[in-house]
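Quick one, T. Sequence first:
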Amino acid sequence: MSEYYIFELSENVTRTQVRYKNRYGIELAGDLYRAKNMDEGRKYPALVIGAPYGGVKEQGPGVYANVLAQRGFVVLTFDPSFKGESGGEPRHVSSPEIFSEDFSAGVDYLGSCAFVDREQIGAIGICGSGGFALSAAQMDSRIKAVATASMYDISAMRGKMTPEQLSQRIDQLSRQRWTDFEKGEPEYIPSFPKEPVLSIPEGLDPVSREFFSFYGLKRGHHPNARAGHTTTSDLAFLNYQLLNHIDSISPRPILFIMGENAHSRHYSEDAYAAAVEPKELYIVPDAIHIDLYDDVEKIPFDKIEDFFMTAFSSEKD
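Structure tokens:
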């Protein structure tokens, strides 16, 4: 499906398919974006960009990479483990540890490129990848700066439940393991259709309608991004909190970007409050959550470029 992208590649950008392994031995499928006029005899700043939770590299990450490559960055996008064209079995598993590791594996790969400055590598996480990018940076000092866009902290689900609800959910998921074992495969219920449809189904709640307007319609649909993960994947997120050590990222800077009207604002606000300086919360006027997936008129590329170049300049001083 590598030929299926939701955006048109700039005539000034080269995109190369790459493959590399994370520390678990899972082979990741990535795209490397570079300006066509890049001098490979020089070293350039680089970024690794993660997809929204359930998304793939041909969607939002590619939109960002296509623009940022024209601004002088070498940019790596990737399909998370168990998703898209990346390896990992069973398919559609979600793991807070492995999804965070996938960012560090991207840094491994970028650092192996002769034209990348190893001291100028940053990370961008869109939606759920925002939490994974921050989690990776907590334990990987090679990530010199982190930006998130429409961040979701998937592991925050535990804090939204009463003790009774949490106990019931853990029991339900625990018993699902027996069902999965007896079937020989884990339960996976996709959220979106195989092919894009013309309209949003009736009866969805406002947040589900918003996501469907991207993933289920032509705007953002991709056959490798039907969202949802294996049902028992939630167990790991109930037990593993992604951002418990966000304060340890300092003195490396964090930029939280969120839409003024995004339903997900509280995730960025909570993470910002827990983080230590240097940090910044940047609000995009009149933007909802999914606008920061692909709307190049609303994604603040000037701000993103300035943030990383300032962070990398400080690293050299």
